Amino acid sequence: MSSNKAFAADASRKERLKEWVSRPGGFGIITGCLMFVTITVVGFIYPLVGPFGTDEFVGESLEGPSLAHPMGLDQLGRDVMTRVFAAVPADIGIAFLGVTIPLVIGTVVGILLGISKNKQVVSIVSSLIDGINAFPLLIIAIAMVTFLGPGLFNVVIILTLMSWARYARIARTKAVVVLQENYIEATKLMGYSKRRVISKHVAPNVSSESLAYALSDFILVIIIVSGLSFLGFAARPPMPEWGAMIADGRTFIGQAWWLTVFPGLALCWSAISLSFIVEGLSRRDRGNA
Amino acid sequence: MSNALVQIDSLCIDVKVTRTRRLTIVNSATFDVQPGQLLGLIGESGSGKTMLCRSLVGTLHRRGAYINSGSLKFNGIDLIAASPKDWREIRGKEIGYIPQSALAGPNPVMTIGAQMAEAIQLGEKMDKSVVRKRAIELLEIVQIRRPEIVLKQYPYELSGGMKQRVMIACAIAREPKLIVADEPTTGLDVTVQAEIMQLLKQIRKDLNTSIILVSHDLPLINEVCDDIVIMHAGSTVEKIPSAKIQDTRHPYTEALYRSRIDLVEPRGKLITINGQPPTVGDWPTGCRFAGRCDYAKPGCSADVEIPSIKVGPNHLTSCLRQAEIWGK
Amino acid sequence: MSVTFKSFGYEVQAVKNVDFVLPQGKVVGIVGESGSGKSTFARVLSGLQEPTGGYVTYLGAPIQDGKEIYKGELRKAVQMVFQDPYSSLNPRMRIINAVAEAVRVHQNPNKSEAQQIALDLLKRMGISEIDAFKYPSSLSGGQRQRASVARALSVQPKILIADEPTSAIDQSAQSQLLELFSELIKDGLSIVLVSHDLGVIRYLTDNVYVMQNGEFVETGSSSKIFENPSNAYTQKLIASIPSSGKK
Question: Taking CB atoms and an 8 Å cutoff, what residues of chain A touch C106?
Answer without folding.
Answer: 190-191
